[in-house]
Amino acid sequence: MLWGELLLGLGLLLGLLSYLRLGLLLNLGLLRYLLLPLLLMLLPLLLMLSLLLMLLSLLLMLLPLLLML
To answer: I need a labelling partner for 40 at 20 to 30 A (CA). Which of 8, 58, 67, 69 fits?
Structure first.
């Protein structure tokens, strides 16, 4: 459980840093308003997907042990 929270915090921190950095790079108005919310929406989605894949692989590793019981 702790690893998931750490990864989530790291993902949020990276999202904030990339948001600020891209905000400094793209001082173009409209492009900034379209691109950055999209990136911020995709980052937690990718993080959730990686966490789900990690849980699935853990479940697949534990499945033979459960079947042996």
So the answer is: 58
Q: Measuring CA to CA, how many Å separate 6 from each of 13, 30, 32, 55?
A: 10, 33, 28, 15
Q: Give pLDDT tens digits for 41-69.
A: 788 888 888 888 888 888 888 888 888 87
Helices 30-68, 2-25: inter-axial angle, 10-degree rounding: 160
C-alpha distances out from residue 38 to 6, 23, 28, 30, 35, Å: 23, 13, 16, 13, 5
Domain limits for position 29: 2-68
Q: Which two tokens stand for residue 26?
A: 């793209």
